[in-house]
Design brief:
Two copies of one chain form a homodimer. Chain A is α+β, with helices and mostly antiparallel strands. In chain A, about 60% of the residues lie in helices and about 15% in strands. Chain A binds a DNA duplex through α4.
DNA sequence: CATCTATTTGGCTATTTGGCAAAATAGATG
DNA sequence: CATCTATTTTGCCAAATAGCCAAATAGATG
């Protein structure tokens, strides 16, 4: 396997960074079960809806979630369910 | 499995956040091969040695690396080699 | 103890982040 | 087209981050 370049690490770090927030981990874990609209996520998270929307934007830019419109609602879903294996791996770290 | 609390997510996010930087991913990957002193890491990274030292502090606080002194040198090593499985998982994400 | 080397710490600046509130937007519906 | 609902965007502020340089520290060694 080739040595990774700075760019490789930057790309990888960008995805990891998107996950590096408690609220975003909560969102990702919720989406694991089912796709969910923003207002429902807001209720779970408890922050202002604009804040939740920004978190979703971060996740979307990282390619971790995607959205589907249905009437007035946007339903978000995991674009990449395997990220949760990654999160679970971290959760299981013995420190 | 119980629902995770905010604290669970905060703890998990703290570890992930420590990994969420290109230089720190580079460092972690280097340490995978062998334990390494700070000045050697500085050569690989190319930043000021104080910057590298601070990155190592971040990783140490997260429990991801540990150090061993040998004479003047501090040899850092992975405290938790499994984190790289995690990183590899992210690297392999299809986006 | 003086000094040397490797490393960490402190101080500074520029940039990014996370949060709320208010304004703007996108579709649905009257 | 007016209006309603769900969501995003913008503006703002406080706090955190990353980087460099200079100063401090920890051991080793003369």
């Amino acid at each position: 396997m080739k040595a990774k370049t700075k760019n490789d690490y930057a790309a990888q770090a960008a995805v990891i960074k998107a996950m590096a927030h408690p609220t975003r981990l909560l969102i990702l874990n919720s989406l694991k079960k089912k796709e969910t609209c923003v207002c429902e996520l807001r209720d779970m998270v408890g922050d202002d809806i604009s804040t939740v929307s920004k978190h979703l934007l971060v996740l979307k830019k990282a390619g971790l979630v995607a959205a589907r419109r249905e009437g007035n609602w946007l339903h978000y879903r995991l674009a990449c369910p395997c990220v949760l294996d990654f999160a679970a791996c971290v959760a299981g770290l013995k420190r």
